[in-house]
Design a protein that fits this description.
Layout lengths: L5 H20 L7 H8 L1 H5 L7 H8 L4 H25 L10 H21 L5 H10 L1 H11 L1 H21 L4 E6 L4 H12 L5 E3 L7 H10 L7 E5 L7 H9 L3 E4 L7 H4 L2 H8 L1 H4 L6 E5 L3 H4 L8 E6 L7 E9 L2 E8 L5 E6 L3 H17 L4 H10 L8 E5 L2 E6 L5 H13 L3 E6 L9 H15 L2 E5 L5 H9 L5 E4 L3 H10 L4 E6 L8
Length: 518
């Protein structure tokens, strides 16, 4: 009798999974990110095949009997489920939904909400009609459930936070290092960890766990009594969030990578980004140490409000404490000389990592490592052993093609540096990119400049998404660059690369948009 509901439940499963996936990628609607995503994608999530079940409501008001309604309900939902299933199978999901304890709590509340609605409303509305309405508005129901669960999530958060702070309190000898910036945080963290581990037992936050939840998970689940150092990556979308992280772990040391336009849309202005990133350095104690980039005007111009020790690193600026020169990038890595202020000798370093961006990250790690008692000979050995960071200018050879994988989140300066790396490579040079996002009002102009940089660096360009890459296309046209291929799916790029490759081919994979932008 109730078999007609099965297609609806199958459809509801897909719709709930997708809505929870987007809620999770949008940080559970922090800063109203999920709401903004819904508004931007209203046509995609509300006005396609998902409108077909409303035929059941039309039949209901036309007076059709319950048998006709039930059969229509089952047939329509079976059709809509198949369409949605095929669509989901075609999607290239980069970061699937992670079924965490929080997701399970949300699912439980969804189940309760449906039960309550059915119990109280079935006396005044037909069951098929009620299910059609609720299924259609599932994206909004998930948002409602997220709001309902806020008190529960606050209780869970504060209980785990108390546990983490209690654990840190008894680890008196633990050194805490914070790392933030507009980009390069994860690379800088991993490089620093590799270098410090020649002398210490350093624990970096795993992957890109750089939120309060991420730090709490790291402390509660990974930190142990054998760790000398905790390296905390700190991410932010608005002013005040870095300060919140610092109040949690109380860093004594801090590294600020370059400040740029990343997350300009949520910060609101370049000044807010600058202020937000410096919350790390201004949270350090007076006997703390901050490492700043002497080539970054936004760091040099900032009026620091505390008296901690500052170490400047740089390449172009000669008046810094630790400087790199004679930088040479090849298809096997990078070599450079390092000059320490007050030491006339030059020290030669080599690394498997590519590009100037990684030289800055290594310099910061060298500067802080030296401050923490690692001698120069040890630093040279440590830098040589630093492992490439996944999806961040990572070299990968596939048969006769060498890929430069810079797929993890693109930004204006990082993408320019990646293209500079590609430009230095021998042979044919191809870039694959969907462009950059979350750049606010500057997004079109910055993507147009990206197109101009591509024209100066590459032989051919493969752009993913015609509408998404309009600005890049304009930049390429202005440079009279015509070897452009526009595809809708990045998977199609790899078969195209094999058609246009040369005897020696280098392919830069620049940015891979999160699922919520696709």
């Amino acid at each position: 009798m109730f078999l007609y509901i099965v297609p609806f439940l199958m459809y509801l499963f897909l719709r709930t999974k997708k809505s929870l996936h987007m809620l999770q990628q949008n940080l559970y609607d922090e800063n109203r990110r999920y709401c903004k995503w819904l508004i931007k994608n209203i046509v995609k999530v509300m006005f396609k095949y998902d409108l077909l079940p409303f035929i059941v409501i039309v039949l209901y008001f036309l007076g059709f009997n319950s048998t006709v309604l039930a059969i229509s309900f089952a047939v329509i939902y079976l059709f809509v489920f198949v369409i949605n299933y095929i669509s989901h199978k075609k999607e290239s999901v980069k970061k699937p939904l992670v079924v965490t304890a929080r997701i399970k709590r949300l699912l439980f509340t969804v189940f309760i909400l449906y039960g309550v609605a059915l119990y109280f409303l079935l006396s005044i509305i037909n069951s098929e009609v009620l299910l059609v309405i609720m299924g259609y508005f599932q994206y909004l129901i998930v948002l409602l459930v997220q709001k309902i669960n806020i008190p529960i999530e606050k209780y869970v958060y504060f209980s785990f936070k108390r546990k983490a702070m209690k654990k840190l309190k008894v680890m008196n000898n633990l050194k805490v290092i914070g790392i933030t910036g507009s980009y390069g945080k994860t690379s800088s963290k991993n490089i620093l960890s590799d270098i410090l581990n020649v002398k210490y037992n350093a624990l970096p936050t795993p992957k890109n766990l750089n939120t309060p939840y991420g730090l709490i998970i790291t402390i509660n689940n990974h930190l142990n009594k054998f760790n000398d150092i905790l390296i905390a990556e700190m991410g932010a979308y608005k002013v005040g969030e870095i300060k919140q992280l610092c109040d949690l772990v109380h860093p004594k040391y801090g590294i600020l990578t370059k400040i740029g336009a990343a997350h300009l849309e949520t910060f609101g202005s370049q000044e807010n980004i600058q202020k937000g990133k410096f919350e790390l350095i201004e949270s350090l104690p007076e006997d703390g140490v901050g490492v700043l980039n002497g080539d970054d005007e936004l760091q040099l111009s900032y009026k620091l409000k505390n008296k901690c020790k500052i170490i400047y690193i740089g390449i172009d600026n000669k008046d810094v404490d630790v400087r790199a020169e004679n930088i040479k990038v090849s298809n096997i890595g990078t070599t450079f000389d390092v000059i320490f202020k007050g030491d006339k000798q030059k020290y030669n370093f080599e690394t498997k990592l590519l590009g100037f961006a990684n030289v800055y990250n290594i310099l910061a790690a060298i500067a802080l490592g030296f401050e923490l008692g690692i001698n120069k000979k040890q630093l040279i050995i440590a830098v040589k052993r630093v492992k490439p960071v996944e999806h961040r200018l990572e070299l990968k050879r596939v048969n006769d093609i060498i890929y430069i994988d810079d797929a993890y989140n693109s930004n204006p300066i990082g993408s320019k540096m990646a293209l500079d790396v590609l430009k230095m490579m021998p042979g044919k040079k191809i870039v694959v990119t969907p462009g950059m996002v979350e750049l606010g009002d500057m997004q079109y102009e910055l993507n147009k400049k990206l197109g101009e940089h591509i024209a100066d660096s590459c032989d051919e360009a493969i752009l993913i998404g015609d509408n998404q890459t309009k600005a890049i296309q304009e930049g390429l046209r202005e440079k009279k660059f015509d070897k452009v291929h526009i595809l809708e799916d990045v998977k199609d790029a790899f078969s195209l690369i094999h058609k246009i490759k040369d005897k020696e081919t280098y392919v830069l994979l620049e940015n891979d948009l999160p699922d919520l932008f696709n």
